[in-house]
C-alpha cells in the first residue's frame, strides 16, 4: 500500500512539473520585459554617473539617453500588446489547457501501463546485506544459509568426514567446483586417503574445477583409486577421458570399451560411456558396431517371469548388491538370510502379497531350502489363483522337493495341467505334462504336447534337440 | 566538380568492399609470422621454478624442440596441457616454455596440479621477451630446429590433430636432417 501511495505522489509531482509552464502561459515573457526595463533603467543611471564624472559630454549623453529611451518604449509597447487580448491569444491558451488536461490523464495511466506488465508490487525488499551474499548458481537463501552453517561447523570440527563430503557434494551441485574440490581434499585428508570412493570424488571435482580437463594430479589420484578398487567406474572413465584429451584416442577407446565390458547392463553410466565410444570410434574412422562391447548382465535381476511385479518391488539396493560382491560367501549368505527373514515376517502380516511369496520362494530355492520354498509358493498360489508364473514356480519347487526330472510328482503334474488350461502353450507345462503322459504310456497325448512344444523352440538349440529326441523315442517305443 | 563529391561515398564503399571480399576468403587462423625460418631472438629469462632451468636463446640450439608460451590464467592452455604432457612424457619431444605475464605462485600451483611437461621454464613476467618472439596471445607454440631457428608456429592450443598432422612429422624430418 505504501508503495502505491509513494508512486502516486511521485506521479503527481511529475505531472505538476510538466503542467506548470503550460498553465503559466505567457507570464514568462512578461517577466522578461520587466527584466529588460530594469536593465535599461540601470543603463540610464550609469549614463548619468558617467556624465557627472565627465566621462562623456552632454551631447553624447543626450544621444545615448534618446537611444535607451527608444528601446524602453519598444519593450513597453511589446509588453502591452502581448498583455492585451490578441485574436490568437485565447485559442493558444485553450490549446494548452487541453494539453494540460490530456497530460493529467496520459502521465499516470502511461506509468501504470508500463509498470503493470513488468513490475512486481509484492516483490520483497532487498536489503543491501542480503544482496551482497547473492548466491552463485541461483541457490535459495536457505541453501546459502545451510552452507554457511556447515562451513562454520567444519571450522569448529574439521575432522567431520561426513560434513566435508556433504560440503563437497553441495558445492558440486551449486557449480562451485573449486570449493567442492577443496572440500573433497579435506575429506581425503580426514579419511587419510583410505577410501577409494572419496579419492574418486576428489579427483572428479578437480577435473570439474579445471573445466573438464583431467589434470595430472587427478589422473594420479584415479590411478591410486584403481589400485584400491579395480572396479571403480569413475576412475576408469576419467582415465580414459584423460587419454583422449592427451590425443591418444585409441587408448581412450580401449579403456572405455573395457569399462563397458565390466559394467552391469543397468549401470547408470553406460549411456555416457557408449556415447564416448561412438564419438571416439567416429574420430578414428572405426565401425562402432565392431568395437561396441556387451555389458555384464544387470546387477538387479529384472524378474523376467514376473510380469505382475510392481516396479518398485523392494529388492536389495544397489549398495547392498555392490557390497555383496565384496563379501565372503558366508557373509553373503548371512545378508541374504537377513533379507529373507524380513520378507517372511512381512508376508506373515500380509499374506495376500503374491509377489512377495514368489520372491520368498525363489530366495529359499537359492538357499537350498526346498520345503520352505514349496510352502511359500503354495501360499502364493493361494493368494493369487491363476497366476501362471506363481504356478510354474510352485510346480518347479514340487519337482525339486520330490521326484526326479524323469518322473515329476503327481501334485506338480496337476499344477502344470492347470497351467495348460490357462496358457495352452506354456513350454514348461507342455514338457512336464508330456513327460508324465509318456511315463504313463499315454503316447498320443505325449507326442501331441511335445509336438506343440517343438514348434516354439529354436531349431538347433539344445532344448529343441532334446524334445526332438524324446519324440523320436516315443515313436520307436510306440 | 561538385558532382564528384556525391560519387565519393560510393567510391569509398567499393574500395572497402574490395578489401572485405579479399579478407573474407582468407583463413583467419593462419597468421603470417615474420619469424618463420628466422633464428630465435636473443633473450635470457630467469627460471620459474627454484630448482628448475631458465630459458635463454643459447639453450635452444643443438636439438629439435618445442617452445610453448603459457600462463596459468589462460583457459585454452588447460586444453592443450594434456597434449603437451603426452608429447613430453610419451612421445619423447623436448618441450620448453615461456611463462607469460604470470604470478610465479599461480604458475607453480598450476603445474603441480596439471603436471609439468617442460624441460625448462623461463618466467617472462613483463612480457618483453614474448614481444620479441612475436607472441600476441597465449597459448602459442613454436617448433625450433637444431640450429635454433623457428620452423613452425601454432597459434592457440595445440590440438591432437595438429600434433599428428604437422608437428610430429616436422620434428621427425628435422631430426632426420640433423642425423643426415
UniProtKB/TrEMBL annotation, chain A:
TPR repeats lie at residues 161-194, 354-387. The keyword rRNA-binding does not apply. Keywords: Cytochrome c-type biogenesis, Membrane, Repeat, TPR repeat, Transmembrane, Transmembrane helix. InterPro entries: C-type_cytochrome_biogenesis (IPR051263), Cyt_c_biogenesis_CcmI (IPR017560), TPR-like_helical_dom_sf (IPR011990), TPR_CcmH_CycH (IPR056413), TPR_rpt (IPR019734). Signal peptide: none annotated. Its main location: other. It is found in: Cell envelope. Residues 143-268, 342-463 form the Cytochrome c-type biogenesis protein H TPR domain. GO terms for biological process: cytochrome complex assembly. One of its GO terms (cellular component) is cell envelope. The chain crosses the membrane at residues 6-23, 98-116. Residues 290-332 are annotated as: Disordered. PROSITE patterns: TPR. PANTHER family: CYTOCHROME C-TYPE BIOGENESIS PROTEIN CCMH (PTHR47870). This is Cytochrome C biogenesis protein.
Automatic annotation (TrEMBL), chain B:
GO terms for molecular function: disulfide oxidoreductase activity. GO terms for biological process: cytochrome complex assembly. Keywords: Cytochrome c-type biogenesis, Disulfide bond, Redox-active center. It holds the Pfam family Redoxin. It is found in: Cell envelope. Residues 34-172 form the Thioredoxin domain. Its main location: other. GO terms for cellular component: outer membrane-bounded periplasmic space. NCBIfam families: dsbE. Belongs to the thioredoxin family. DsbE subfamily. It comes from the Bacteria. This is Thiol oxidoreductase DsbE. It comes from Skermanella stibiiresistens SB22.
Amino acid at each position: 500500500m505504501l508503495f502505491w501511495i509513494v508512486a502516486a505522489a511521485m506521479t503527481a509531482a511529475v505531472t505538476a512539473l510538466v503542467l506548470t509552464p503550460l498553465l503559466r502561459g505567457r507570464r514568462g515573457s512578461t517577466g522578461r520585459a520587466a527584466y529588460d526595463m530594469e536593465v535599461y533603467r540601470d543603463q540610464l543611471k550609469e549614463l548619468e554617473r558617467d556624465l557627472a564624472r565627465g566621462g562623456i559630454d552632454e551631447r553624447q549623453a543626450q544621444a545615448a539617453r534618446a537611444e535607451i529611451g527608444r528601446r524602453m518604449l519598444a519593450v513597453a509597447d511589446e509588453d502591452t500588446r502581448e498583455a492585451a487580448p490578441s485574436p490568437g491569444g485565447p485559442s493558444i491558451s485553450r490549446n494548452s489547457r487541453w494539453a494540460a488536461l490530456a497530460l493529467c490523464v496520459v502521465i499516470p495511466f502511461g506509468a501504470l501501463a508500463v509498470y503493470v506488465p513488468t513490475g512486481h508490487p509484492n516483490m520483497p525488499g532487498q536489503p543491501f546485506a542480503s544482496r551482497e551474499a547473492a548466491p552463485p548458481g541461483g541457490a535459495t537463501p536457505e541453501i546459502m544459509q545451510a552452507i554457511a552453517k556447515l562451513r562454520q561447523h567444519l571450522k569448529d570440527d574439521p575432522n567431520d568426514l561426513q560434513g566435508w563430503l556433504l560440503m563437497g557434494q553441495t558445492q558440486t551441485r551449486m557449480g562451485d567446483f573449486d570449493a567442492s574440490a577443496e572440500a573433497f581434499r579435506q575429506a581425503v585428508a580426514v579419511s587419510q586417503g583410505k577410501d577409494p570412493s572419496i579419492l574418486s570424488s576428489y579427483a572428479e571435482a578437480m577435473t570439474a574445477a579445471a573445466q573438464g580437463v583431467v589434470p595430472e594430479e587427478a589422473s594420479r589420484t584415479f590411478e591410486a583409486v584403481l589400485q584400491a578398487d579395480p572396479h571403480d567406474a569413475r576412475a576408469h572413465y576419467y582415465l580414459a577421458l584423460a587419454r583422449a584429451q592427451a590425443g591418444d584416442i585409441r587408448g581412450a577407446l580401449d579403456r572405455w570399451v573395457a569399462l563397458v565390458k565390466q559394467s552391469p547392463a543397468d549401470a547408470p553410466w553406460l549411456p555416457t560411456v557408449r556415447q564416448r565410444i561412438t564419438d571416439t570410434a567416429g574420430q578414428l574412422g572405426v565401425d562402432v558396431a565392431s568395437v561396441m562391447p556387451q555389458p555384464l548382465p544387470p546387477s538387479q535381476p529384472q524378474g523376467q517371469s514376473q510380469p505382475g511385479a510392481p516396479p518398485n518391488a523392494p529388492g536389495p539396493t544397489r549398495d547392498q548388491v555392490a557390497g555383496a560382491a565384496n563379501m565372503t560367501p558366508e557373509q553373503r549368505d548371512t545378508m541374504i538370510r537377513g533379507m529373507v527373514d524380513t520378507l517372511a515376517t512381512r508376508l506373515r502380516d500380509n499374506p495376500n502379497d503374491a509377489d512377495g511369496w514368489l520372491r520368498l520362494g525363489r530366495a529359499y530355492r537359492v538357499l537350498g531350502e526346498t520345503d520352505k520354498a514349496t510352502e511359500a509358493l503354495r501360499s502364493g498360489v493361494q493368494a493369487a489363483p491363476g497366476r501362471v508364473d506363481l504356478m510354474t514356480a510352485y510346480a518347479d519347487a514340487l519337482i525339486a522337493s520330490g521326484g526326479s526330472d524323469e518322473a515329476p510328482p503327481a501334485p506338480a503334474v496337476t499344477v502344470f495341467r492347470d497351467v495348460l488350461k490357462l496358457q495352452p502353450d506354456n513350454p514348461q507345462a507342455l514338457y512336464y505334462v508330456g513327460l508324465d503322459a509318456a511315463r504313463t504310456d499315454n503316447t498320443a497325448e505325449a507326442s501331441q504336447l511335445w509336438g506343440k512344444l517343438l514348434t516354439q523352440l529354436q531349431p538347433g538349440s539344445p532344448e529343441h534337440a532334446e524334445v526332438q529326441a524324446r519324440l523320436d523315442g516315443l515313436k520307436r517305443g510306440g | 566538380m561538385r558532382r564528384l563529391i556525391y560519387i565519393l561515398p560510393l567510391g569509398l564503399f567499393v574500395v572497402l568492399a574490395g578489401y572485405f571480399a579479399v579478407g573474407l576468403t582468407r583463413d583467419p587462423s593462419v597468421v603470417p609470422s615474420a619469424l618463420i625460418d628466422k633464428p630465435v631472438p636473443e633473450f635470457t629469462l630467469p627460471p620459474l621454478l627454484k630448482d628448475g632451468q631458465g630459458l635463454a636463446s643459447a639453450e635452444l640450439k643443438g636439438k629439435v624442440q618445442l617452445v610453448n608460451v603459457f600462463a596459468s590464467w589462460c583457459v585454452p592452455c588447460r586444453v592443450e596441457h594434456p597434449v603437451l604432457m603426452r608429447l613430453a612424457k610419451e612421445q619423447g619431444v623436448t618441450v620448453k616454455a615461456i611463462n607469460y605475464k604470470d604470478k610465479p605462485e599461480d604458475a607453480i600451483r598450476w603445474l603441480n596440479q596439471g603436471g609439468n611437461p617442460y624441460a625448462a621454464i623461463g618466467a617472462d613476467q613483463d612480457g618483453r621477451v614474448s614481444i620479441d618472439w612475436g607472441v600476441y596471445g597465449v597459448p602459442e607454440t613454436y617448433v625450433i630446429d637444431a640450429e635454433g631457428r623457428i620452423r613452425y608456429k601454432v597459434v592457440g592450443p595445440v590440438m591432437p590433430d595438429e600434433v599428428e598432422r604437422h608437428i610430429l612429422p616436422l620434428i621427425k624430418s628435422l631430426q632426420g636432417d640433423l642425423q643426415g
